[in-house]
Amino acid sequence: MLESVLGAINLGTIVLDHARRVVVWNHWMSQYSDLPADSVVGQDFFALFPELNGKRIDSAVRQALRDNFPSVLSQTLHKAPFALFANDAARAAGERMQQAVAVTPLDVPGLARHCLIQITDVSVAVTRERLLRDQALELRSQTFSDGLTGIANRRHFDVAMEKEMRRAKRSGTPLSLLMIDIDSFKPYNDHYGHQQGDDTLIKVAHALAAMLQRPADLIARYGGEEFAVILPEMTPDHSQVLAEKMRERIAALGIPHAKAELTGYVTVSIGLATHALEHPSDIAVLLGEADRALYMAKGAGRNRVVRFSAV
Hints:
The protein is of the alpha+beta class.
């Protein structure tokens, strides 16, 4: 009866005696390990599976036999401790079954303490969890990315700006902000059509994004043809150098713009402002300063960088 029950249980069941010899090895274990019970029972468990020596399962068995202490192995840290495979194809590919493992001490009347090892196949649950995680990441990506250009959207910008401003105030480091606007974009759209206008927005966004090399730097689509760039720990001088390179990079694209009065190609104007110890501000103030600098760049003839100055 016991043999029938153990054979019907849909999980791995191993029982070890006080000397860590295998006493029970059920049909489930034989099926997925490809080791029949008669080749395993009576053998020293850790001599059969030397790769488990010194691992978490080793200490769990010792604790169960010596201290009467049960253990559950973290599935996150110990995804597949046993060489168990769902089928021959998985075995050939070396893709182990994802496992949840529990080790429980057993007090057998008249015998020294034994321990029970239970192994559950959690591959389906792990796959489902991975799918849900991927879907969540995709949803998050859609939530924080601009649908046209693929760079960060306004919501992403707002979250990042708040985080970086807190960090700048806490650490006493500068935080620079660039506001970038494509010059004469409405006439461009009217002349070339919205499809080409969208293509140009994508080209400009990608060219600007490629200029950012540090992980914390962020470019976002702030509005229709306007972009914002967050530059943590960057001084006004270094920010201005980068802004000039960005302006030059867009001009170098040479995108024809028949309605651009002075150049004949697409250009950008850039406003720069910096929060620093000697010039503290909050987000609204910094945005206002960068926006005023951008307005001044537009008013001064476009295709230029203007740095905000309180003087």
